[in-house]
Amino acid sequence: MIVEIGHYALVLALALAIVQGVVPLAGALRRDVALMAMARPAAVMQFLLVGISFGALTYAYVVSDFSVVNVFENSHSLKPLVYKFSGVWGNHEGSMLLWVLILALFGATVAVFSHGMPDDLRALVLAVQSWIAAAFLFFVLLTSNPFARLIPAPLEGRDLNPLLQDPGLAIHPPLLYVGYVGFSITFSFAAAALISGRIDAAWARYVRPWTLAAWIFLTLGIAMGSYWAYYTLGWGGFWFWDPVENASLMPWLAGTALLHSAAVMEKRDALKIWTIFLAILAFSLSLLGTFLVRSGVLTSVHSFATDPQRGVFILAILVFFIGGSLALFAFRASALKPGGIFAPVSREGALVLNNLLLTTCCATVFVGTLYPLALEAMTGEKISVGAPFFNLTFGPLFIPIILAMPIGQMLAWKRGDFFGAAQRLVLATAIGAGGALVLYALRGGPVAAPLLSGLALYLIIGSFVEIAGRIGGRGKSLSVIIARAIGLPRSAWGTAFAHAGIGLTLFGLAATGWGVERVITARVGEPIAVGPYEVSIRSLEPRLGSNYQELVAHTSISEGGAVLAEIDPSRRSFTTRSMVRTEAGIATIGMGQVYMNLADVRADGTLDLRLYWKPYVALIWIGALIMALGGFLSLSDRRLRIGIAKRAAARASVSGQAQAAE
């Protein structure tokens, strides 16, 4: 009965989404306040209905209701509870229901936290958001029903893919989806602005928090996915330039450009056309990623579905929303005024350069990802575009961004002093250059490793130079410095931390050039040198898990005879799926990691091992966390959240009083 309630709630949510897409839109066009007011309760109710549906599917997984096809194909009664929860979105149907839930969540959040927003803009935003939700609700109900029944009900399920039975899978998809789907609300703001003609600094202030929230979660989702691949797939890598990995990187790049462009629009009322275009582009790339994962046009460990009919349906959604929004953009863009004027050497100019480089990086990834698919579709020829292409094209484009980031922070709005900004970065430049020389002397080549490490140090130090200049000064006491630091806007701290996080990640990436990899065959008790450490398997132990059997290699890691850490790499056998999964053993020592994968156990007792020493590799993910922290600091800035609404209300009140006095 609960399953049927979930199905009916989804149908009701679709009906309500259609109403919400039509009535507030008509109200905004006719200036009917009553019709526009309907958008807010409808958005909240739509979220509640989709939440009921998602809760019903979760219940079916928790109680192992194998009469539901989705549960039967992706669960098992002995599966740990945490993987029963994560199994809800560990498949195509459930993940699409999660997608719709997040769509509805963003709509409801806008409805609840938009008191200072003009009625017509809010109504249009919620109407456009509801049309997106309606399209995906149609998709779920017609092609991907998660509540389909299986009669008679089997006694046991087929279990979840062993690769997905991991804590990372419980975290990675929800974070990634909030980022992906979060850009839908910026798309809705852009479409609403084009429909209403309300494109000004106030609009940029309204859209920035939603863009920032989506960017934060997409950053965390990409980082979590990278770490999941690193320790679960057993190959010791964290980024393969897989087409689906690229599909998450592209909206991140576009979203990063949108954040900076919206800042220029807010401050100088400039870049209106470009900001609207980026808002459309970010969500369009999210839809493209959905199409790649669900259509079956490529094979990847990330892919959920291989049904071409589903792919055609998503392609139709993609064409309708992207094509429609670009047509509306082309129709309206010529009527937009250019806005504020600024000198090329200014903070605005630096942000424009940032945008150009980011979008060029995005275009490079786009071409490298889709060109093989397009070539195969047109000629039947199969080619592979891999890491060498992306490293040689993306890397040189991203380096100028790193160089320009601290300089851009130093420049004043409207007109800046380039040489003055460069002089303030002398210390950061010296530390970066000196650090590169020291690292090259200590660790040697490849040359790219110390050079990129020095560039990372320059960015980390340079990110806080502007902050130091604002809170410090000659003769200032510690209490004054602390008071100034506390008094600084959180958005200033957020910018500094986000840029420094990129520097930390770059340092971790650069340091992989000094890593050591060994693929060997060894015996229990045999010492193996890996970088500066010695690894030795002490014993092999069979162990029984809840729904698997595993062979664990108890291993010690030592240096100079002293044991520093112990790890337990293993091979897990899932009998229901007849699959074997390796579980890597990872020890973090300092910021580096010793990584061991038990590839195979031979009949003569020897073990096939893959061993790595990765210096500073942990900084890759620590940097991503610092980036997200910077985003949260900016999002918590009171001015960003409520400043524009209060000022707009105050101006309206003063204007009304002045008119009354006259």
What does this protein structure show overall?
This protein is of the alpha+beta class. It folds into 4 domains: 1-165, no CATH class; 167-409, no CATH class; 410-511, no CATH class; 516-614. It is built from 22 helices and 10 strands. It has helices at 2-30, 33-37, 39-62, 69-74, 81-86, 92-112, 119-143, 167-196, 201-232, 243-268, 272-295, 308-333, 347-379, 387-410, 418-424, 426-443, 448-462, 465-471, 478-487, 490-511, 618-635, 638-661; strands at residues 516-522, 527-530, 533-544, 549-559, 562-567, 570-574, 579-583, 585-589, 592-601, 607-614. Strands 2, 3, 4, 5, 6 and 7 form a 6-stranded antiparallel beta sheet that branches. Strand 9 and strand 10 form a beta hairpin. The chain is globular, with a radius of gyration of 27 Å. The termini are far apart. Mean pLDDT is 89; it is low at 642-662.
- Any idea how many domains? 4
Describe the main β-sheet briefly.
Answer: 6 strands, antiparallel
Number of DSSP E strands: 10
DSSP summary: helix tally: 22
Distance between the termini: 66 Å
Helix content: 55-70%
In short:
This protein has helices spanning 2-30, 33-37, 39-62, 69-74, 81-86, 92-112, 119-143, 167-196, 201-232, 243-268, 272-295, 308-333, 347-379, 387-410, 418-424, 426-443, 448-462, 465-471, 478-487, 490-511, 618-635, 638-661; strands spanning 516-522, 527-530, 533-544, 549-559, 562-567, 570-574, 579-583, 585-589, 592-601, 607-614.
